[in-house]
Specification:
The complex is a heterodimer of chains A (about 170) and B (about 450). Chain A has about 170 residues and is mainly alpha-helical. Chain A contains 3 helices and no strands. In chain A, helix 2 packs antiparallel against helix 3. The longest helix of chain A has about 140 residues. The radius of gyration of chain A is 66 Å and the shape is rod-shaped. With about 450 residues, chain B is an alpha+beta fold. Chain B has 2 domains: about 110 residues, no CATH class; about 230 residues, no CATH class. Chain B has 11 helices and 12 strands. Chain B has a 3-stranded antiparallel β-sheet with strand order 4-3-12, with no helix packed on it. In chain B, strands 9-10-11 form a 3-stranded antiparallel β-sheet, with no helix packed on it. Chain B has a two-stranded antiparallel ribbon with strand order 1-2. In chain B, a hairpin with a 2-residue loop joins strand 6 and strand 7. Chain B is globular, with a radius of gyration of 26 Å. Classes of the chains: A mainly alpha (about 170), B alpha+beta (about 450).
Chain lengths: ~170, ~450
């Protein structure tokens, strides 16, 4: 059947003008759009994709870092707490020891003081006793002298005197 | 903040505009294609009585008044040298004609007075420029009384009978045979080599130029957006077009061509996709700036397919050619069979691209025009108003439905053309891992 022919089915016939213009328009469009739009758009999109990826990576890294930091902080905090309690404990121990030592020292010191005081007292007593002895001796000598001087002028007196002295000694 | 508000508002407006545009397109397809067909029909009526006088009588002559569905459809999907708007209203288009024996004839299509005048032996017949074959025809402007159509039966060299259309122009009381519109098919497809070449800005060329300008305008705005919003979120028309661009990049070029080479071919694939898409969409607009069956014309898809062929084969690497001429890894006797098949395949691939796009778009247009034609068929050439009304309702509903399908097809065919081209390019630039065997040996 010749229907296509009769009906002028012209769209299947290559028209040289149309071929020429299509080629021209398409190639010009290809060149201009490629240079002016598609390449810059592609570059901009690639750049933006990279930027977004980078930003995401950055954020992820930051988040990880943050988490790490936090964990570290926790660790440090725990450590600090431990340290504190240790220091406190040590301080208490030191305090106790110091206190103990101080007490001990005080006690020793006190004992020493007491001992030395006793010694001093003893010494003073000895000194006093010695002095007393000396003074008594002196006094006795003096008295004896005086008595002797007075009494010994007469035999009776001397005798009486010796008797008195003897009495006195006996009385002692 | 202020700028941000402004751009948001702007983008919403553009969405609104495109939505309105879509609705307009769909509704007007229905009403206007009906109207223009009616107009077309009336316009053809004026030669009716003259035709009744009989063949070869000179006078007002045109085809008969009866509605010829096939002829009307074919006329509407054909390219034309002028935009036919309404009854006798035409938008003239520039005419550039070249005949080796005459030189250039330049003007606008209005100089032919829609078939009522011949200029330098050229005249308009069925919207296309034809040339009067007889060199004795006077040059300059000559009034034409009418154009007559005859079907002649000829016997070709093989003794086969063939029916061909012959047109005659009536001028100076003589019938002058017309050459066919300029084509390059050498008669294979019913055209033939003519003594002139038509480089006019036809409807199709005009629509392609408009689509190209629209694309340039659109993408310059988008590219400007990328410059302006560097390091920021996209805005306005930029964010409207970005999904298309990213879709083609991520679904077509990158997976088909491969990570390494895809950027080099991106402009070509993108231009193909958007050019075909815009031409398809313009073809769906039934009134003035659109209405041309651009991608449904074999010449257009031929050029696109040839460009694809060139791009693919000029970028084919050694491996690609090895696979074509001497497929590795198969027995030699299979190679002998396979090589011719592969060589044929080089041409069949772009050929299938050409036919697929052309057939899909043309078929869609033919279906829509046929549905609209129901109005005239049911209306019995204006005798039955009720029949015409029934046809209008049925045809209108189906046309609305078909338009939605056509809208899908417009996107789909652009996508298919782009993805197949990308896959052919991908096959041509693919780098095979030669070290595979070494690996196996190493293991």
């Amino acid at each position: 059947m010749n229907i296509f022919l009769l009906a002028e089915f012209s769209v299947i016939r290559p028209d040289p003008g149309l071929i020429f213009w299509t080629a021209l328009i398409f190639i010009v469009l290809w060149g201009v759009l490629g240079r002016m739009a598609f390449k810059p758009i592609q570059n901009a999109l690639t750049k933006r994709d990279n930027d977004i990826q980078e930003a995401l990576d950055e954020a992820k890294r930051a988040r990880e870092e943050m988490a790490n930091l936090q964990a570290e902080n926790q660790k440090i905090l725990a450590q600090a707490r431990e340290e504190r309690s240790k220091i406190l404990k040590e301080a208490k121990e030191t305090k106790d020891q110091i206190l103990k030592e101080a007490k001990e020292q005080a006690r020793t010191e006190a004992r020493k003081i007491v001992v030395s005081a006793q010694q001093e007292i003893e010494n003073q007593r000895q000194i006093a006793v010695t002095e007393l002895k000396n003074q008594v001796g002196q006094m006795a000598i003096t008295i004896a002298e005086k008595v002797l001087r007075k009494q010994l002028t007469g035999a009776n007196n001397q005798e009486a005197f010796v008797n008195t002295l003897v009495d006195e000694i006996k009385l002692n | 903040m202020h700028g941000f508000l402004k751009t948001t508002k702007k983008s919403r407006t553009s969405v609104n505009v495109s939505y309105c545009f879509l609705v307009l397109v769909l509704s007007l397809t229905l009403t206007l294609s009906t109207a223009s067909l009616l107009a077309q029909h009336e316009g053809h009526d004026h030669g009716t009585e003259a035709a009744a006088e009989g063949a070869h009588s000179c006078g007002e002559a045109d085809e008969d008044g009866d509605y010829d569905a096939v002829a009307t459809v074919m006329h509407h999907i054909s390219d034309a040298n002028e935009f036919h708007i309404w009854k006798d209203v035409h938008i003239p288009l520039p005419i550039f004609l070249y005949a080796p024996d005459h030189g250039w004839t330049i003007g606008t299509s209005s100089m032919f007075h829609h078939g009522h005048a011949a200029v330098d032996r050229y005249l308009i017949n069925h919207g296309r420029v034809n040339r009067i074959a007889d060199a004795d025809f006077p040059m300059g402007e000559v009034p034409i009384n009418g154009i007559m159509h005859e079907v002649e039966t000829i016997t070709d060299s093989k003794g086969k009978e063939k029916e061909i259309d012959v047109y005659f122009a009536c001028a100076n009381n003589h019938l002058w045979e017309l050459e066919r519109p300029s084509t390059l098919d050498g008669g294979v497809l019913g055209g033939g080599l003519t003594s002139f070449y038509d480089f006019s800005i036809t409807k199709n060329v005009f629509t392609m130029m408009l689509a190209a300008l629209l694309l340039l305008f659109l993408f310059s705005a988008v590219a400007r957006g990328y410059r302006r919003n560097e390091g920021q979120a996209p805005s306005g028309i930029q964010s409207f077009m970005e999904p298309f661009f990213v879709f083609i990049r991520d679904e077509v070029t990158k997976p088909m061509i491969g990570e390494k080479h895809y950027e080099r071919f991106q402009p070509f694939i993108m231009t193909l996709f958007f050019f075909i898409l815009f031409c398809n969409l313009m073809g769906l607009v039934p009134f003035f700036p659109g209405g041309a069956n651009v991608t449904g014309n074999l010449a257009v898809t031929l050029v696109l397919a040839v460009l694809t062929f060139i791009v693919v084969n000029f970028n084919g690497n050694g491996h690609y050619w090895e696979h074509v001429f001497w497929m590795p890894g198969i027995p030699a006797w299979v190679k002998v069979i396979l090589t011719p098949v592969e060589i044929l395949g080089l041409f069949i691939k772009p050929f299938s691209l050409m036919i697929r796009l052309f057939a899909n778009i043309s078929a869609g247009h033919i279906i829509i025009l046929s549905l609209i034609g129901l109005i005239f068929l049911f209306g019995n050439n204006g005798d039955s108003v009720g029949g015409a009304a029934t046809g209008a309702v049925i045809g209108g509903l189906f046309t609305a439905f078909m338009n939605l399908i056509e809208l899908l097809v417009a996107f789909l065919q652009a996508f298919i053309f782009a993805i197949l081209t990308a896959s052919y390019i991908g096959a041509a630039v693919e780098e095979h891992e030669h070290h595979d065997h070494d690996h196996e040996r190493a293991h």
